[in-house]
Task: structure prediction
Amino acid sequence: MRSLDGDIVILGVGGKMGPSLARMAKRASDLAGVSRRVIGVSRFSTPGLPSKLQSWGVETRSCDLLDFASYAQLPEAANVVYMAGMKFGSTGQQSLTWAMNTYLPGPVSERYRDSRIAVFSTGNVYGLSPVRCGGSREEDPLRPVGEYALSCVGRERIFEHFSRTNRTKMSILRIYYSTELRYGVLMDVAQLVLAGKPVPLAMGYFCAIWQSDAVAMSLQSLAHVASPPLVLNIAGPELFRVRSVAEEFGKCMGKSLRFEGVEGDDALICNSGRAMQLFGHPRVSPAQMMAWIADWAVRGGESLAKPTHFENRAGDF
Result:
């Protein structure tokens, strides 16, 4: 934040990661002694979120990004973090999914053609990868499964098109299961174990990264934007095995385990070596993540009640 010039606009700040990213950007700028506006844009369907952001020094603008008449009121900024999109509930609302994930990047790219843009994407664009190969790499061909994943490939392609034609420098961040106390695959598994419900094994492995680490890497990517876009897998370097994670939670919680299904030989996993080279390893280790989440779940801590559906191999969300 000390070396980055200009203000930061966060489009889609109202999602699971948006408030953390906005707060970190503002705190880091203040600590760096940089006078910078951080502006969060969203429809703000969650009551109280605008006031919470404002208490952190983050300005807010209420805007439906599909209402293009409102674009003239969006603030100028040298840096844009694009977090808007639709995943859960996409089955049954396919047209809205495509509008949000594939159509919307076009007008946003035109509106902020002179800015640096960090684009949030997903590992679902790759499809499943053989576990023995260690996960998908950024240069691998994309084989998306399901309409959600297809629409996310569309998002990347539209941003790439405008990056090339307008020479807009961008990063595309394929994030694999950002995790915190209230949400994520680790929380999903912990809640199943705690409730004595069967843990599905069909998707036998997954990647995860603590949310603060994912947010930090996403902000740092603004220093590495390029045209055509720099593509990065954002995840921890480790592969989590679902069975082993459940067994560790069972030990911590004193719970017996139930499993269902058989581990497949492929999974939605990635190799995050390129991001590790740029930003270093995450600060929060897998052991620490699991210890925090086990404790939180046992104590009945708050949950966002938004399961990841990590076990879904068909790409239906």
Observations:
- Residues 51 and 272 are 36 Å apart (CA to CA).
- The radius of gyration is 19 Å.
- The mean pLDDT is 95.
